[in-house]
Design goal:
The complex is a heterodimer of chains A (about 170) and B (about 325).
Chain A: E1 3-10, E2 15-22, H1 25-31, H2 51-80, H3 87-95, H4 99-114, E3 118-120, E4 124-125, H5 126-129, H6 135-166
Antiparallel strand pairs in A: 1-2, 3-4
Chain B: H1 4-31, H2 37-47, H3 51-68, H4 70-79, H5 81-103, H6 106-135, H7 142-170, H8 173-204, H9 206-212, H10 217-221, H11 223-243, H12 252-272, E1 275-277, E2 281-282, H13 283-286, H14 290-317
Antiparallel strand pairs in B: 1-2
Classes of the chains: A alpha+beta (about 170), B mainly alpha (about 325).
């Protein structure tokens, strides 16, 4: 099985469009054998999650994580060798302010969407675990949480901008 | 061995501990607008080392409800979905405001102070609403919701009482004098709330009515309300007496306030037992599978002494009058 770096999954046709692949690497990672067999998602029909959120969530998580490693390693190396802090590097670093959150959220989507339709694998379906709460109640609470977190995010950004403006003392 | 009553006691103890401990810091939060800027810093310093550990009791109570009484957890938290969500938003805002107000200046600090008050108020009010909904068996209709809101307001008064008496213990001079006056206001609200709940529960449920109005047992049971009233009067007089001098038995008002909460809680527990959802679900009907109970029991035996231990330790380390500039 190849390692698919990027593609547009096509659920109707059950294939990947425009894919960029590394042959055999997928099998190597998952089974430690270049000819290892990995079960396809068809093997789990009909109890399988939607493909797109999983496919992109996983690649965003790993991709952002890899980029964080590269940027931090390069910056550590550059600092150790006394290279002056370059403007472009500083901009890259501030661009990574929320990268940890993005990777965590993408990973969260992978686990939560990935286990559907099960809440507890093979024991309890999400459908059977839903409580007797109306859509209006859920909508109200979700709105409340989103507004609260948006406000807190704004406050957080004001604080870090303020602290960055003060510089290190 | 029947573990259901054991878990009921653990859960009840956790809820009571939460109410009297987080109650005082929520109460201090609600009293913020009544104080001057300098006093506000001192008030925050007086709850600083305690407030977030106090909230662990709520987590423990709900955790025991979920693990030991899963059927009741589904019914109770399903019925209380909206007040719980509103309470959580209040607790989130309040927790963040607590940290942010110390670093903020000018109108930013005013904003965070206001949010600290608003979050404390929302959390307290919706906890009271939850209590009001719970003891009326989640009945629908305008009257029941109005009742729940009055209980919400009364619980705010109760937390103000705990907060004010806590400030009497932790502060000196002018702020302590103010706190003694606040405590009396809180006490009046508590009297209203306890009276309302005591009258409402037997009216709503026949089971509760039969338990309390069953002569001659009623005569013995009347010790409970009588003791509550006596403690209330003693608390009122203690605040008057403490006003005379700069120092006295400053922990006494808080202790008496805790006693009022404990007695009210006992009365409520007696009303509802053996139900977890009034008239609908007993503790045995709601209990988890015995094998699950055994696992939870082992966990509780390990964790509970640790929680109690660090709680006592931290209250001893940070005992006595609060000092200003704990954070600034």
């Amino acid at each position: 099985m190849p390692l698919v770096l990027f593609a547009i999954p096509n659920e109707q046709e059950k294939r990947n469009d425009y894919s960029i692949e590394l042959p055999f690497v997928g099998s190597l990672i998952l089974t430690h054998d270049v000819k290892g067999e990995v079960k396809g998602i068809e093997a789990f029909e009909p109890d399988r999650p939607p493909v797109a959120p999983l496919f992109f969530g996983f690649r965003i998580m790993v991709g952002v994580g890899m980029m964080m490693l590269l940027v931090s390693w390069y910056t550590a190396w550059a600092t150790r060798h006394g290279l002056p802090a370059r403007r472009w590097l500083l901009w890259v670093l501030s661009g990574f302010t929320f990268s940890g959150w993005i990777a965590t959220l993408a990973g969260w989507i992978v686990t939560e969407v990935g286990r559907q339709p099960w809440l507890v694998q093979g024991v309890l379906r999400t459908r059977d675990a839903v409580g007797e709460i109306t859509g209006a109640q859920l909508g109200a609470s979700l709105t409340g949480y989103v507004l609260t977190y948006a406000g807190l995010l704004l406050a957080y950004m004001v604080v870090i901008t303020h602290m960055a403006g003060k510089g290190s003392e | 061995m029947d573990l259901a009553p054991v878990f009921l006691i653990v859960m009840g103890a956790a809820v009571l501990a939460y109410v009297v401990l987080d109650g005082f810091d929520l109460g201090v939060g609600m009293l913020m607008p009544a104080a001057t800027g300098e006093e506000q810093s001192l008030m925050v310093a007086s709850i600083g080392p305690f407030w977030d550990a106090n909230e662990t009791w709520l987590v423990l109570g709900v955790g025991v409800l979920l693990s030991a009484f899963p059927a009741a957890h589904g019914v109770v938290l399903g019925a209380l979905y909206l007040p719980v969500a509103a309470m959580l938003v209040g607790l989130m805002i309040r927790g963040v405001a607590f940290e942010m107000r110390m670093k903020a200046h000018g109108w930013h600090r005013d904003l965070w102070n206001w949010l600290f008050w608003a979050g404390s108020f929302a959390a307290s009010f919706f906890q009271g609403v939850m209590l009001g909904r719970y003891i009326t068996g989640f009945e629908g209709g305008f009257g029941y919701w109005l009742f729940a809101m009055v209980v919400g307001a009364s619980l705010c008064g109760g937390y103000v009482l705990l907060g004010a008496t806590w400030l009497v213990y932790k502060t000196e001079g002018e702020l302590r004098r103010k706190a003694l006056a606040w405590a009396r206001w809180g006490l009046l609200w508590v009297a209203l709330g306890v009276a309302l709940v005591s009258l409402a529960t037997p009216m709503v449920s026949e089971t509760v009515r039969d338990k309390w109005f069953d002569f001659p047992r009623t005569l013995w049971l009347m010790i409970l309300p009588a003791a509550t009233v006596a403690i209330g009067i003693a608390l009122w007089r203690a605040t008057r007496k403490l006003e005379a001098g700069p120092r006295g038995k400053d922990l006494l008002p808080y202790g008496l306030a805790v006693a009022i909460f404990a007695l009210s809680f006992l009365g409520l527990a007696y009303s509802i037992y053996p139900y977890v959802v009034i008239d609908k679900l007993t503790i045995w009907e709601a209990a988890a599978h015995p094998s699950a109970q055994k696992v939870i029991f082992i966990g509780a035996v390990i964790v509970l002494p640790l929680i109690i231990g660090y709680t006592i330790f931290s209250y001893r380390v940070f005992g006595g009058k609060a000092r200003e500039k704990l954070y600034d």
